[in-house]
Amino acid sequence: MLHNDLRDIAVDHGCIGFGVTTAEPFAGLEEEMVERKSSGLAANLAFTYRDPSVASDVRRTYPWAERLVALAFPYLPDAGRSEREAGTLRIARFADGDRYEGLRTALGAVAARLSGAGHRAEILSDDTRLVDRAVAVRAGVAWAGKSAMALVPGAGPWVLLGSVVTDAALDVGGPMRRSCGTCVACIPACPTGAILDDGVIDVPRCLAYVLQAPGVIPIDLREAVGDRLYGCDDCLTSCPPGHHVLESALPVPGPRIIDVLGSTDRELLGRYGHFYLPGRRPRFLRRNALVAAGNDRSAHLESVVIGYAGHPDWLLRAHAAWAIGRFGTGVGLRALERAIEEERDGRVRAEIHRAKERWTAGAGLR
Fold this sequence. Notes:
The chain has 366 residues and is α+β, with helices and mostly antiparallel strands. It is built from 17 helices and twelve strands.
């Protein structure tokens, strides 16, 4: 009875997936995460990689745990689909707003029912202490996709995942008998070739990671960044199980590059404060927008980008230099020549030299 009540509550709150599994450690998960860290495939990811022994065994946090109630909450078609347009930026659809609000409400309702029945219940979602995808797969809510995404019938990868930890001895399910089979659509769709194998991601090349990571965006990945401000949906948009919900989503225009580059810190945090930004610093949004401007090369953006060649932040001057070189105009070359005369930071000087060489070679000329 309690199990059915919980499932009904989840459905009533908009969830498309519900399942229950034991609180036993996830066999092999800790070792897999440690190996990916040591091999460099996990880059400098923290989050669940901060302590794989904890993230793979919920009883290290909650020794009393008996079950994990897994929920999957869809964010399409409500979040819409990105519309590509010159001068604008793309944002991964899960980040168009606080899409976790609906999931948190559903998890809270499930936890309240468990508590009302006299059981302990704690919510874990997007939390360092548990790998959400592992729970969803073992509970039969999803199957593990080749893109490393959890794929849910009826929604594909367009879901958010969360769990309720409880001491209630609920009936448990098992993994679903479903897989990607021979489908490899996500692998060639990745703009940087970051999907290496069945569920293995070369994180340093994944644009979703790159656009969140601090520091300089690697030169060999900047063109692949394209018009992205935050996140990358290419492995999701290519996934056949999610096509029908994607097609039913209305197109949503992204923010204008010029608006992001022209906004104050307070304005950017007001609009995008729900993003993960290292140190809560909007400089990384501007960095990403400068790269997008260099890829876009709309004429009205050049003067704004040139203005960033004199910005107090070396990181932004460096990416502005690259973008100026991409415009390939005489105005841009003169701006680079002025900048090199005054620049004292070796990292920025190197970017300016590379940009000038590109201009001289004609690769950036239009």
